[in-house]
Amino acid sequence: MKTLFERIIEGELPAERVYENEHILVIKDIAPQAPVHLLLITKKAIPNLQALERSDYFLLGEIVETAKTLAREFGLEKGGYRLLVNNGYHAGQTVPHLHFHLLGGGYL
Fold this sequence. Notes:
Strand order of the largest sheet: 1-2-3-5-4
Order of helices and strands: HEEEHEE
Distance between the termini: 34 Å
Mean pLDDT: 96
Helix content: 10-25%
Largest sheet: 5 strands, antiparallel
Number of helices: 2
Shape: globular
């Protein structure tokens, strides 16, 4: 069964897309926890950080570079922002598909 994010990536479900390349899709979170709350999602279906294989490590660099660029574009660079990943159910991961949260725009 496809995850929510796989269905968004494939265009089966709507999402407010902010950025996309061959490996990453960035969307606005539908239940934002900060004035800016973006989800940086790997297009490859990887359940969580623990499931990341060495051959996928380049994705981490792409996530960080994309986060830095978006932080600049959304005016978060000076005030600061969080880039975080929830790994597993007990860490608050609700969708079993590797994704990072970029949060900023106010005190978090």
